[in-house]
Dirigent protein (Zostera marina), 189 residues
Amino acid sequence: MASTTAILLIFLLSVSSTTFVFLCQGKQLVVEVKDAPKLPKLKQTQLQFYIKENFTGPDPTGVPIAQAASTNSSATQFGLTYVFDHPLTLDPETTVDVVGRAQGIFSLTSKEIVSTTVLITFIFNEERFNGSTLVVSGRVESGDGRKELPVIGGSGAFRFATGYCDIKPYDIGGGLELPFYNIYVRHYY
């Protein structure tokens, strides 16, 4: 009985000293739980812009960074991955009215059809939203017509953002198209 009590006492001392050391080091999952602050009024904002994509020439805004060994033999270019830093403009014809940047990554992710999985951060420099961001992520199939991507977050004026992007092609001639983004976003501002 005495040896069982001694073992139990040693065990409790080692557990409590380990817990004390752990708490003293500040390593804990939950630091604090409290009532959330009151959020500003919920707003809905509609944004429209063109993305000026450029994958060729001496100063491209999108470049390939990786591909699988089998990418070149794939009908869908499965595994090809790009990073990009494209300007956002209000006018499809010029780059004078840049209101932000689209920075991110996309990969061709289907072996059956041409489709991309994208992660885009829109960084705005327009007065009202200067420095604010929206983050969009999802899957887009190639082909004609409209596409849709979810807004999954944001920062600055777009904190707690949710919504969606309606993307349609804008024909600039010569068989070339620019993506026109129409974004509907709900956020607290």
In short: The CA atoms of residues 165 and 183 lie 4 Å apart.
